[in-house]
């Protein structure tokens, strides 16, 4: 909808190159680590406790696109794994050197993910939404939305119909993600409230004409609000088709290497056997090498993984030799690969960014911005 020039001006692509450049510039990365460490080291004892590491773990989870801690058992497992990366599962305190090493690995892993699946940062300023409102196809599309919004809820109030209809607008229309809690509480609800009087809000069985008139008034006000206070949205699109798993399984050296790294931190008994209850944790560690999302990030993928684990009795807790454990992992990945090749999973996500990704999270600024000015 927007012109190409406007689109280019309002977009920023995060492809991981800035992160790689930062980590590889030792002087600048040391400064970046020093800043982060000082922010986290609340008691200034030169080490980070588990409690002090929590904000870093939360930032990393947010940068990975995970929901907040406490909202999903699967995503909470990932947060726990990130924390274990810092503490090695047992340490109570983490030194600056250890923090730097782990942070470097995590950032480079993020960079690899962004190179594969870049994130587009969109500045939504109301121009696209305005263009949509005044486009020839606007009314026909909204009429279609009207019938969808009223389907099965003919007794709904005008306010509820408009709120539901707004869910049908997307980033492509120039609308920030309408399901985002921040968008609902800061844009949708206040504007719907301000555009309708008390009688309008309670009105039921509204006609098509009445709905179109009220809806347009609300959407025009949303466009005006965006023009006054633009919203930044992170947009990403990923398709998981099994090709990454096939590449990994076809390269025995890389597959063994990925498994060995994952198994390093997994407990073993005195005979060197591993419990099958750790299959999920190892799969999560191997996921980036197989071009899979983290557990908890994509519900369809989680369902697929649960089915694959069920096929090998992955939750029976049985102790097995390392070679058998690796063989079982190959079977799980092979099962997931075949399912994805038959039915690829495409995921498009949009989330409001409340602070610049280059400052508050672990997607750091470009090295050039972090350098001290030369004398």
From TrEMBL:
Keywords attached to this entry: Calcium
Every EF-hand domain range: 28-63
Pfam families: EF-hand_7
SUPFAM superfamilies named in the record: EF-hand
Presence of keyword Calcium: yes
Calcium is among the record's keywords: yes
Molecular function terms from GO: calcium ion binding
Protein name from the UniProt record: EF-hand domain-containing protein
Organism: Brassica campestris
InterPro entries xrefs: EF-hand-dom_pair, EF_Hand_1_Ca_BS, EF_hand_dom
Record-linked PANTHER family: CALCIUM-BINDING EF-HAND FAMILY PROTEIN (PTHR34574:SF2), CALCIUM-BINDING EF-HAND FAMILY PROTEIN-RELATED (PTHR34574)
């Amino acid at each position: 909808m927007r012109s190409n020039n406007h689109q280019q001006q309002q977009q920023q692509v995060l492809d991981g190159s800035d992160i790689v450049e930062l980590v590889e510039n030792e002087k600048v990365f040391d400064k970046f680590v020093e800043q982060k460490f000082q922010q986290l080291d609340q008691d200034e004892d030169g080490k980070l406790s588990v409690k002090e590491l929590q904000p870093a773990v939360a930032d990393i989870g947010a940068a990975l696109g995970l929901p907040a801690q406490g909202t999903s058992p699967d995503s909470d497992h990932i947060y726990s794994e990130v924390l274990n990366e810092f503490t090695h599962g047992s340490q109570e305190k983490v030194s600056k050197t250890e923090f730097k090493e782990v942070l470097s690995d995590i950032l480079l892993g993020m960079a690899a993910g962004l190179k594969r699946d870049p994130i587009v940062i969109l500045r939504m300023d109301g121009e696209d939404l305005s263009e949509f409102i005044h486009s020839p196809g606007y009314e026909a599309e909204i009429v279609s939305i009207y019938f969808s919004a009223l389907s099965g809820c003919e007794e709904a109030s005008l306010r509820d119909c408009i709120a539901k209809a707004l869910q049908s607008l997307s980033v492509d229309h120039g609308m920030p993600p309408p399901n985002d809690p921040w968008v609902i509480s800061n844009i949708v609800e206040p504007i719907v409230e301000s555009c309708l009087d008390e009688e309008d809000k309670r009105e039921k069985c509204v006609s098509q004409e009445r709905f179109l008139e009220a809806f347009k008034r609300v959407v025009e006000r949303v466009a005006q609000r965006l023009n006054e206070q633009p919203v930044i949205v992170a947009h990403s699109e990923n398709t998981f088709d099994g090709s990454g798993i096939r590449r990994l399984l076809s390269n025995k050296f890389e597959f063994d290497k990925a498994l060995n790294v994952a198994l390093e931190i997994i407990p073993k008994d005195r005979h060197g056997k591993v419990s099958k209850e750790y299959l999920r944790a190892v799969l999560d560690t191997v996921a980036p090498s197989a071009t899979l999302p983290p557990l908890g990030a994509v519900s369809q993928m989680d369902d697929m993984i649960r089915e694959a684990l069920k096929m090998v009795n992955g939750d029976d807790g049985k102790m097995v030799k390392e070679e058998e454990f690796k063989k079982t992992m190959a079977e799980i990945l092979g099962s997931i690969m075949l399912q994805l090749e038959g039915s690829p999973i495409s995921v498009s996500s949009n989330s409001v960014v409340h602070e610049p990704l280059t400052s508050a999270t672990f997607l750091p600024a470009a090295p050039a911005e972090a350098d001290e000015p030369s004398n």
